[in-house]
Amino acid sequence: MKRLPHQFICLVASAIFSTAFVSRCRADGPYHFLKEITVGGEGGWDYLSVDEAARRLYLSHATKVVVIDLDKDEVVGEIADTPGVHGLAPAPELQRGFTSNGRESKASIVDLKTLKTLSKVDTGENPDAILYDPGQQEVYTFNGRGQSATVFEAKTGKVLATIALPGRPEFPAVDPQAGRVYDNIEDKNEVVAIDTKTHQVTNTWAIAPGEEASGMAIDAAHHRLFLGCHNKLMVMMDSVTGKVVGTVPIGDRVDANAFDPGTQFAFSSNGDGTVTIAHEESPDKLVVVQTLATERGARTMALDPKTHRIYLASAKYEAQPAPTADAPRQRPKIIPGSFKVIVYGTEKVAEH
User: Fold this and answer.
1) How do residues 173-182 score in pLDDT, each as one tens digit?
2) What is the pTM (predicted TM-score) of this model?
3) Residues 6+ apart with CB under 8 A from 8
Protein backbone atom coordinates (compact mmCIF):
# COMPACT_ATOMS: atom_id res chain seq x y z
CA MET A 1 0.00 0.00 0.00
CA LYS A 2 2.89 2.38 0.66
CA ARG A 3 4.57 1.83 -2.71
CA LEU A 4 1.67 3.21 -4.81
CA PRO A 5 1.87 6.80 -3.54
CA HIS A 6 5.66 6.81 -3.98
CA GLN A 7 5.36 5.62 -7.58
CA PHE A 8 2.68 8.20 -8.26
CA ILE A 9 4.84 11.00 -6.86
CA CYS A 10 7.75 9.91 -9.04
CA LEU A 11 5.49 9.85 -12.11
CA VAL A 12 4.21 13.37 -11.45
CA ALA A 13 7.73 14.62 -10.76
CA SER A 14 8.81 13.20 -14.08
CA ALA A 15 6.29 15.32 -15.92
CA ILE A 16 7.01 18.49 -13.96
CA PHE A 17 10.73 18.43 -13.47
CA SER A 18 13.22 16.19 -15.30
CA THR A 19 14.44 12.68 -15.88
CA ALA A 20 17.39 13.44 -13.62
CA PHE A 21 15.03 14.12 -10.72
CA VAL A 22 13.26 10.81 -11.27
CA SER A 23 16.59 9.01 -11.18
CA ARG A 24 17.33 10.56 -7.81
CA CYS A 25 13.83 9.69 -6.60
CA ARG A 26 14.34 6.04 -7.43
CA ALA A 27 17.91 5.62 -6.31
CA ASP A 28 18.47 8.38 -3.71
CA GLY A 29 21.14 9.78 -5.97
CA PRO A 30 22.26 9.95 -9.58
CA TYR A 31 24.34 6.71 -9.57
CA HIS A 32 23.25 3.11 -9.22
CA PHE A 33 24.51 -0.43 -9.91
CA LEU A 34 24.47 -1.46 -13.57
CA LYS A 35 26.36 -4.74 -13.93
CA GLU A 36 29.36 -6.88 -13.02
CA ILE A 37 32.17 -7.92 -15.37
CA THR A 38 33.70 -11.26 -14.42
CA VAL A 39 37.50 -11.31 -14.49
CA GLY A 40 38.41 -14.36 -12.41
CA GLY A 41 41.92 -15.55 -11.68
CA GLU A 42 43.89 -15.16 -8.47
CA GLY A 43 45.82 -12.39 -6.77
CA GLY A 44 45.28 -8.80 -5.74
CA TRP A 45 44.82 -5.63 -7.73
CA ASP A 46 45.49 -1.92 -7.69
CA TYR A 47 44.83 0.91 -10.18
CA LEU A 48 42.30 0.98 -13.01
CA SER A 49 42.62 3.36 -15.98
CA VAL A 50 40.37 4.22 -18.93
CA ASP A 51 41.42 4.86 -22.52
CA GLU A 52 38.34 6.76 -23.68
CA ALA A 53 39.36 6.84 -27.36
CA ALA A 54 40.14 3.11 -27.62
CA ARG A 55 37.12 2.21 -25.41
CA ARG A 56 39.26 0.14 -23.05
CA LEU A 57 39.66 -0.32 -19.32
CA TYR A 58 43.05 -1.43 -18.01
CA LEU A 59 43.09 -3.21 -14.69
CA SER A 60 46.17 -4.34 -12.77
CA HIS A 61 45.82 -7.88 -11.44
CA ALA A 62 48.63 -9.81 -9.75
CA THR A 63 51.46 -9.94 -12.33
CA LYS A 64 49.45 -8.84 -15.38
CA VAL A 65 47.15 -6.13 -16.70
CA VAL A 66 43.65 -7.19 -17.74
CA VAL A 67 42.16 -5.42 -20.78
CA ILE A 68 38.38 -4.89 -20.86
CA ASP A 69 36.33 -3.64 -23.82
CA LEU A 70 34.18 -0.81 -22.44
CA ASP A 71 31.48 -1.15 -25.10
CA LYS A 72 31.14 -4.94 -24.80
CA ASP A 73 31.84 -5.11 -21.05
CA GLU A 74 34.07 -8.14 -21.45
CA VAL A 75 37.71 -9.13 -21.06
CA VAL A 76 39.49 -8.99 -24.43
CA GLY A 77 43.14 -9.57 -23.51
CA GLU A 78 45.94 -9.19 -21.02
CA ILE A 79 49.43 -7.74 -20.76
CA ALA A 80 51.84 -10.23 -19.20
CA ASP A 81 55.22 -9.97 -17.45
CA THR A 82 54.47 -7.02 -15.18
CA PRO A 83 55.68 -8.24 -11.74
CA GLY A 84 53.93 -6.47 -8.90
CA VAL A 85 52.10 -4.19 -11.32
CA HIS A 86 50.29 -1.20 -9.81
CA GLY A 87 48.81 0.46 -12.88
CA LEU A 88 48.90 1.30 -16.58
CA ALA A 89 48.99 4.78 -18.09
CA PRO A 90 47.76 4.84 -21.71
CA ALA A 91 49.09 7.20 -24.39
CA PRO A 92 46.35 6.93 -27.04
CA GLU A 93 48.07 9.08 -29.67
CA LEU A 94 51.17 6.88 -29.49
CA GLN A 95 49.33 3.55 -29.20
CA ARG A 96 51.52 2.87 -26.19
CA GLY A 97 50.87 1.96 -22.59
CA PHE A 98 53.20 2.17 -19.62
CA THR A 99 53.02 -0.04 -16.54
CA SER A 100 54.57 0.46 -13.10
CA ASN A 101 56.09 -2.89 -12.06
CA GLY A 102 56.71 -2.45 -8.36
CA ARG A 103 58.35 -5.78 -7.71
CA GLU A 104 61.13 -5.30 -10.25
CA SER A 105 61.46 -1.48 -10.07
CA LYS A 106 60.82 -1.11 -13.78
CA ALA A 107 58.23 0.34 -16.14
CA SER A 108 57.07 -1.64 -19.18
CA ILE A 109 56.48 0.07 -22.53
CA VAL A 110 53.63 -1.81 -24.22
CA ASP A 111 52.23 -1.81 -27.77
CA LEU A 112 48.50 -1.37 -27.15
CA LYS A 113 47.62 -2.93 -30.52
CA THR A 114 49.35 -6.23 -29.83
CA LEU A 115 49.52 -6.00 -26.01
CA LYS A 116 53.18 -7.03 -26.27
CA THR A 117 55.96 -5.52 -24.16
CA LEU A 118 58.42 -3.57 -26.32
CA SER A 119 60.98 -2.70 -23.65
CA LYS A 120 61.43 -1.92 -19.97
CA VAL A 121 62.78 1.17 -18.23
CA ASP A 122 64.64 1.20 -14.90
CA THR A 123 62.90 3.38 -12.31
CA GLY A 124 63.34 4.25 -8.66
CA GLU A 125 62.53 1.67 -6.01
CA ASN A 126 58.97 0.30 -6.07
CA PRO A 127 57.21 2.38 -8.75
CA ASP A 128 53.57 2.70 -7.73
CA ALA A 129 51.43 5.36 -9.42
CA ILE A 130 52.19 6.08 -13.07
CA LEU A 131 51.15 9.00 -15.27
CA TYR A 132 51.45 10.02 -18.92
CA ASP A 133 51.88 13.73 -19.71
CA PRO A 134 50.55 14.33 -23.26
CA GLY A 135 51.92 17.87 -23.27
CA GLN A 136 55.56 16.71 -23.21
CA GLN A 137 54.88 13.07 -24.23
CA GLU A 138 56.65 11.91 -21.11
CA VAL A 139 55.94 9.30 -18.44
CA TYR A 140 56.25 9.73 -14.68
CA THR A 141 56.55 6.83 -12.26
CA PHE A 142 56.10 7.71 -8.60
CA ASN A 143 58.40 5.46 -6.63
CA GLY A 144 57.06 4.55 -3.20
CA ARG A 145 60.12 3.30 -1.34
CA GLY A 146 62.41 5.43 -3.50
CA GLN A 147 60.50 8.61 -2.53
CA SER A 148 61.14 9.91 -6.02
CA ALA A 149 59.66 10.30 -9.50
CA THR A 150 61.33 8.86 -12.60
CA VAL A 151 60.63 10.74 -15.85
CA PHE A 152 61.26 9.16 -19.25
CA GLU A 153 60.42 9.81 -22.90
CA ALA A 154 57.31 7.94 -23.98
CA LYS A 155 58.62 7.24 -27.49
CA THR A 156 62.13 6.09 -26.63
CA GLY A 157 62.15 5.11 -22.96
CA LYS A 158 65.09 7.42 -22.35
CA VAL A 159 65.23 8.47 -18.69
CA LEU A 160 65.23 12.27 -18.46
CA ALA A 161 65.18 12.92 -14.73
CA THR A 162 64.90 11.46 -11.26
CA ILE A 163 63.05 13.92 -9.05
CA ALA A 164 63.60 13.68 -5.30
CA LEU A 165 60.33 14.00 -3.37
CA PRO A 166 59.86 15.04 0.27
CA GLY A 167 58.12 11.82 1.28
CA ARG A 168 56.11 8.84 0.06
CA PRO A 169 54.25 9.61 -3.20
CA GLU A 170 50.73 8.48 -3.98
CA PHE A 171 48.21 9.37 -6.75
CA PRO A 172 49.25 12.07 -9.28
CA ALA A 173 47.41 14.27 -11.78
CA VAL A 174 48.55 16.34 -14.77
CA ASP A 175 47.50 19.66 -16.27
CA PRO A 176 49.24 19.83 -19.68
CA GLN A 177 48.05 23.39 -20.34
CA ALA A 178 49.58 24.64 -17.12
CA GLY A 179 52.69 22.52 -17.56
CA ARG A 180 52.32 20.97 -14.12
CA VAL A 181 52.21 17.49 -12.61
CA TYR A 182 50.80 17.20 -9.09
CA ASP A 183 51.30 14.41 -6.58
CA ASN A 184 50.18 13.56 -3.06
CA ILE A 185 52.95 13.13 -0.49
CA GLU A 186 50.89 10.93 1.79
CA ASP A 187 53.10 10.73 4.88
CA LYS A 188 53.76 14.49 4.97
CA ASN A 189 50.18 15.71 4.37
CA GLU A 190 51.38 17.66 1.35
CA VAL A 191 50.95 18.09 -2.39
CA VAL A 192 53.87 18.85 -4.67
CA ALA A 193 53.69 20.65 -8.02
CA ILE A 194 56.31 19.69 -10.63
CA ASP A 195 57.21 21.82 -13.66
CA THR A 196 56.97 19.52 -16.69
CA LYS A 197 59.68 21.38 -18.62
CA THR A 198 62.33 21.65 -15.92
CA HIS A 199 61.35 18.51 -13.97
CA GLN A 200 61.71 20.47 -10.75
CA VAL A 201 59.41 20.63 -7.73
CA THR A 202 58.18 24.22 -7.82
CA ASN A 203 55.69 24.19 -4.94
CA THR A 204 54.93 22.16 -1.83
CA TRP A 205 51.53 22.79 -0.27
CA ALA A 206 49.95 21.65 3.00
CA ILE A 207 46.57 19.96 2.64
CA ALA A 208 45.17 20.78 6.11
CA PRO A 209 42.53 20.07 7.30
CA GLY A 210 43.08 16.95 5.17
CA GLU A 211 45.48 14.24 6.31
CA GLU A 212 47.25 11.38 4.49
CA ALA A 213 45.88 12.01 1.01
CA SER A 214 45.85 8.97 -1.26
CA GLY A 215 43.54 9.70 -4.19
CA MET A 216 43.82 12.69 -6.52
CA ALA A 217 41.77 14.00 -9.45
CA ILE A 218 41.81 17.29 -11.34
CA ASP A 219 39.36 19.76 -12.83
CA ALA A 220 41.81 21.43 -15.19
CA ALA A 221 39.27 23.95 -16.51
CA HIS A 222 38.72 25.45 -13.06
CA HIS A 223 42.20 24.70 -11.66
CA ARG A 224 40.95 22.45 -8.89
CA LEU A 225 42.47 19.34 -7.33
CA PHE A 226 40.36 16.81 -5.43
CA LEU A 227 42.27 14.94 -2.71
CA GLY A 228 40.94 11.82 -0.97
CA CYS A 229 42.22 11.97 2.60
CA HIS A 230 42.33 9.24 5.22
CA ASN A 231 40.73 11.42 7.88
CA LYS A 232 37.49 11.04 5.90
CA LEU A 233 37.65 14.28 3.94
CA MET A 234 37.74 15.18 0.26
CA VAL A 235 39.77 18.37 -0.04
CA MET A 236 39.26 20.77 -2.98
CA MET A 237 42.50 22.68 -3.61
CA ASP A 238 43.37 25.52 -5.98
CA SER A 239 46.03 24.03 -8.29
CA VAL A 240 47.55 27.47 -8.95
CA THR A 241 47.95 28.74 -5.40
CA GLY A 242 47.73 25.58 -3.30
CA LYS A 243 44.94 27.10 -1.21
CA VAL A 244 42.33 24.70 0.21
CA VAL A 245 39.00 26.15 -0.90
CA GLY A 246 36.59 23.47 0.26
CA THR A 247 36.09 20.10 1.94
CA VAL A 248 33.34 17.49 2.17
CA PRO A 249 33.07 14.34 4.32
CA ILE A 250 33.75 10.96 2.66
CA GLY A 251 33.86 7.31 3.70
CA ASP A 252 36.66 5.42 5.43
CA ARG A 253 39.86 4.04 3.79
CA VAL A 254 39.76 6.12 0.62
CA ASP A 255 42.08 5.09 -2.20
CA ALA A 256 41.04 6.72 -5.48
CA ASN A 257 39.38 9.87 -6.74
CA ALA A 258 37.95 10.86 -10.12
CA PHE A 259 36.44 13.98 -11.67
CA ASP A 260 33.96 14.11 -14.55
CA PRO A 261 34.18 17.42 -16.46
CA GLY A 262 30.90 16.66 -18.22
CA THR A 263 28.85 16.50 -15.02
CA GLN A 264 31.13 18.31 -12.54
CA PHE A 265 30.94 15.31 -10.22
CA ALA A 266 33.93 14.46 -8.02
CA PHE A 267 34.15 10.85 -6.77
CA SER A 268 35.90 9.23 -3.84
CA SER A 269 36.07 5.40 -3.70
CA ASN A 270 36.35 4.14 -0.14
CA GLY A 271 37.33 0.77 1.26
CA ASP A 272 34.35 0.76 3.62
CA GLY A 273 32.08 -0.12 0.69
CA THR A 274 30.99 3.34 -0.43
CA VAL A 275 31.68 5.90 -3.13
CA THR A 276 31.17 9.50 -2.07
CA ILE A 277 29.86 11.61 -4.97
CA ALA A 278 30.11 15.39 -4.68
CA HIS A 279 29.12 18.12 -7.11
CA GLU A 280 31.32 21.12 -7.86
CA GLU A 281 28.64 23.79 -7.58
CA SER A 282 31.26 26.45 -8.23
CA PRO A 283 35.08 26.56 -8.06
CA ASP A 284 34.72 27.37 -4.36
CA LYS A 285 31.80 25.12 -3.40
CA LEU A 286 31.66 21.32 -3.23
CA VAL A 287 28.48 19.54 -2.10
CA VAL A 288 27.90 15.82 -1.44
CA VAL A 289 24.97 14.54 -3.52
CA GLN A 290 25.20 10.79 -2.87
CA THR A 291 26.85 8.10 -0.80
CA LEU A 292 26.75 5.15 -3.20
CA ALA A 293 26.80 1.68 -1.63
CA THR A 294 29.37 -0.59 -3.34
CA GLU A 295 31.29 -3.50 -1.77
CA ARG A 296 33.77 -3.55 1.07
CA GLY A 297 37.30 -3.40 -0.29
CA ALA A 298 36.22 -1.89 -3.63
CA ARG A 299 38.45 1.16 -3.25
CA THR A 300 40.16 1.61 -6.62
CA MET A 301 38.19 3.25 -9.40
CA ALA A 302 38.24 4.67 -12.91
CA LEU A 303 35.81 6.94 -14.76
CA ASP A 304 34.74 6.81 -18.41
CA PRO A 305 34.04 10.45 -19.39
CA LYS A 306 32.04 9.36 -22.45
CA THR A 307 29.38 7.36 -20.59
CA HIS A 308 29.97 8.88 -17.12
CA ARG A 309 30.20 5.36 -15.71
CA ILE A 310 32.54 4.46 -12.89
CA TYR A 311 34.32 1.12 -12.57
CA LEU A 312 35.47 -0.46 -9.30
CA ALA A 313 37.49 -3.63 -8.75
CA SER A 314 36.30 -6.12 -6.14
CA ALA A 315 36.39 -9.76 -5.07
CA LYS A 316 34.96 -12.14 -2.50
CA TYR A 317 36.95 -13.04 0.59
CA GLU A 318 37.38 -16.02 2.87
CA ALA A 319 36.52 -15.74 6.56
CA GLN A 320 38.58 -13.31 8.63
CA PRO A 321 41.57 -15.18 10.14
CA ALA A 322 41.85 -15.24 13.89
CA PRO A 323 44.41 -12.74 15.23
CA THR A 324 47.75 -13.97 16.49
CA ALA A 325 50.50 -12.39 18.56
CA ASP A 326 52.62 -11.89 15.43
CA ALA A 327 49.72 -10.82 13.17
CA PRO A 328 46.94 -9.19 15.19
CA ARG A 329 45.24 -7.79 12.06
CA GLN A 330 45.47 -10.46 9.40
CA ARG A 331 43.76 -9.86 6.08
CA PRO A 332 41.31 -12.44 4.77
CA LYS A 333 42.37 -14.26 1.60
CA ILE A 334 40.70 -13.58 -1.75
CA ILE A 335 38.56 -16.47 -2.99
CA PRO A 336 40.13 -17.67 -6.26
CA GLY A 337 38.06 -16.87 -9.35
CA SER A 338 35.92 -14.23 -7.63
CA PHE A 339 37.71 -11.14 -8.99
CA LYS A 340 35.44 -8.77 -10.91
CA VAL A 341 34.74 -5.21 -11.98
CA ILE A 342 31.54 -3.54 -10.80
CA VAL A 343 29.95 -0.91 -13.04
CA TYR A 344 27.85 2.00 -11.79
CA GLY A 345 26.16 4.66 -13.87
CA THR A 346 23.31 7.11 -14.26
CA GLU A 347 21.39 5.35 -17.02
CA LYS A 348 17.76 4.48 -16.43
CA VAL A 349 17.13 0.83 -15.66
CA ALA A 350 13.94 -1.12 -16.13
CA GLU A 351 11.85 -1.42 -12.96
CA HIS A 352 10.48 -4.75 -11.89
Assistant:
1) 999 999 999 9
2) 0.89
3) none
